[in-house]
Amino acid sequence: MAATFFHQPVAGLNGWGIDVPSFGSSRIFGKLLSTRLFFNSSYHKLQHPVLGSISHDSSTESSLILIRHGESMWNEKNLFTGCCDVPLTKRGVEEAIEAGKRISYIPVDLIFTSGLIRAKMTAMLAMTQHQEKKVPIIVHNESEQATLWSGVYSEKTTNQSIPVITTWQLNERMYGDLQGLNKKDIAEKYGKEQVREWRRSYDISPPNGESLEMCSRRAVAYFKDFIEPHLESGKHVMVAAHANSLRSIIMYLDRLTPQEVTSLEMSTGIPLLYIYKEGKFSSRGSPVGSTEAGVYAYTQVII
Ligand SMILES: O=C(O)[C@@H](CO)OP(=O)(O)O
């Protein structure tokens, strides 16, 4: 006899009740799916190892954590990576876990990552350290079947979970013909200035790749359309992505000029905290680790 207990999943694309592009529109900015939200910001008293108890009033403000993935196997080899989908190194895994410790006391209701494994690994590893011990679950919205087959049928389990939305719009900039090439070799061949322009200028593209401006058009549009509304509604959000997709988002949040963004660098695996309140973002830098006085998220050195 067929089991009779199957019914509508509590969680799945619609069941999570989150606004994300549907599978029919996941490659373009399509209509939002508006459904009931099962996730509530129920935890307000998390313990920081140094600062102690931190209260969050989700009715007035929400937190946004941005994190660049930990060191990848191509970061280690100094190769242009772009949209090539390479995993973390052991060091990258450790960075992600350390990042998780730094943010373990900050509430997280919803996670967005790029579609690339290094960002997904970073988010998942970081969440293993979180005080709430909720389980991050990747939302599969690539087809109707994927949505159905990944359904969760327990409301209790759903409430102990954090939906993880993966999206290509948060991917690293596409590095074109440079992908897989060594950064030092290319600097020797074309000159440091040329390579610096390809890597850090705002509107100059690497050969057949995306400029930061092009990357920003999709990453910032996604942020405004699909992430900001959750912050507005009081949800605490983590975004795990890449040096350049995050540079473009930080440019938007911090209102940097195209000139200023050229000197913005991001370290691997260092989380950055923003507070969203009354339509404004304020940067709180990087959450302090348990064993140090502070940490710098930005560095100036490239190549
Ligand atoms: O290779 C890449 O994809 C990026 C990030 O690692 O490099 P860059 O610092 O040159 O933007």
The backbone outline, from C-alpha atoms, is globular
Number of domains: 1
Q: Would you state the CATH class?
A: Alpha Beta
Pick out the low-confidence regions: 1-6, 22-45, 48-56, 292-303
Across the major sheet, the strand order is 5-6-4-7-3-8-9
Looking at the overall shape, the CATH architecture is 3-Layer(aba) Sandwich
Can you tell me the CATH superfamily?
A: Phosphoglycerate mutase-like
Radius of gyration: 19 Å
For the secondary structure, the number of strands is 9
Strand-residue proportion: 15-25%
Helix/strand-derived category reads alpha/beta
Explain this structure to me?
With 303 residues, the protein is α/β, with parallel strands linked by helices. It has one domain (45-283): Phosphoglycerate mutase-like (Rossmann fold, 3-Layer(aba) Sandwich), CATH 3.40.50.1240. 30% of the residues lie in helices and 16% in strands. It is built from ten helices and nine strands. Helix 2 (90-102) packs across helix 3 (117-127), helix 6 packs across helix 7 and helix 8 (212-232) crosses helix 9. Mean pLDDT is 84; it is low at 1-6, 22-45, 48-56 and 292-303. The structure holds 2-phosphoglyceric acid. This is phosphoglycerate mutase (2,3-diphosphoglycerate-dependent).
Structure, briefly:
With 303 residues, this protein is α/β, with parallel strands linked by helices.
List the helices and strands and how they pair.
Blueprint: E1 45-48, E2 52-55, E3 61-68, H1 73-76, H2 90-102, E4 110-114, H3 117-127, E5 135-138, H4 144-149, H5 155-159, E6 161-167, H6 183-190, H7 192-200, H8 212-232, E7 237-241, H9 243-253, H10 258-261, E8 271-277, E9 280-283
Parallel strand pairs: 3-7, 4-6, 4-7, 5-6
Antiparallel strand pairs: 1-2, 3-8, 8-9
Helix pairs in contact: 2-3, 6-7, 8-9
The structure holds 2-phosphoglyceric acid.
The site of 2-phosphoglyceric acid has 9 residues, from helix 9.
